[in-house]
Amino acid sequence: MSDVRLLIRISETFGDLADEILDGLVTRDRKRLGSEYVLIGRDEISPLRESPFGKFVRWNLPLEHAWPCNPEKMEGFVEKAAQGLAKKFGGKKPQAILIGPLDGANRYYKTLASNLRGRVLQVFPKMENVTVEEQNPDLPTLFCMVGKEGLFAGIATPREVNGFYPGGTKFIKQGAAETISRAGAKIAEALHYLKLFAEPPVSGAHWLELGASPGGMTSELLQRGYRVTAVDRAVLDKRLDRAAGLEFQRQDVAEFQPRPGTTFDALLSDMNGEPREALRQVVRLSKHLKPGGLVVFTLKTTGEDSVGGINALHRSAIDDAHRGGLDCFATTHLTYNRQEFTLLFRKR
Description:
The protein is an alpha/beta fold. It has helices at residues 18-24, 77-89, 107-123, 158-161, 183-194, 216-223, 275-285, 307-323, and strands at residues 6-10, 30-33, 37-40, 57-62, 65-68, 97-101, 141-147, 150-156, 206-210, 227-232, 246-250, 264-269, 289-300, 326-332, 340-347. It has eight helices and 15 strands. It has a seven-stranded mixed beta sheet, with helices on both faces. It has a four-stranded antiparallel beta sheet with strand order 2-3-1-4, with no helix packed on it. The chain has a four-stranded mixed beta sheet with strand order 5-8-7-6.
């Protein structure tokens, strides 16, 4: 286990492509943990952000401590693990200590992760109890993952691991009564992920949303105090009728043209259909963005059944956007993404 240096997560969404992705990362050492995590040799992997295969890796942690064991069958696991982490990392002064389960659906390990974090905070040298939301993306955090395979830990900044949460998962509760669609969770998570690189648009900012129906993302943006011009051929959910801050244009996105002089702070597109055509509309309408304006674009890859096909589509999207004055600064696969990626652009 000593030669294993990196813990990565590849979503089950891409489970059928996992071996192809790992081969593309040029690593021979690999050990699977659960359904989504893989231990790989760190020295054999090219930098994830520079690799065309890196976007498939939702989260990655440079390992400094690995304890293969079965916590369920070990008496006093929490105490032993807490003391071990304090001894190993106590002098490194991380900004926060965050512990998550390798299997998020397993209640036992979700509870164990919570109990272990509480005990680690007790035995660790005195430090502020910085929460997930309070983290500085550029300061180191002690991230730990625990599961039936054991305990795995390392110190890295949230930006380096590609997320604020252990495992890169931000769970967003969606109540049946108030939730219009799961897309609301997708934009909420995208705006949280954006904090790795920049602050989200301020309250009151004006968004242009393309392909808005039925309004899950629209609702989330309005709840955050944004103004939204939403465009779609289909109607929005009735719960958005007369919503403050909302202007709805019921028409085809390809035919939509903002009123002369209208500018937007941000543009959002989660349109279905042919992805290159969706991006063409984004580039066309980005002319109405203010300089430095944000674009959140969902690149749908349904229909592409190989890593090579997805990579070619992604590269084409970034190049087309660049020619249209948009620079991509991040690509990720979010918890609420299906076979698609969330791309973040800035208007040049």
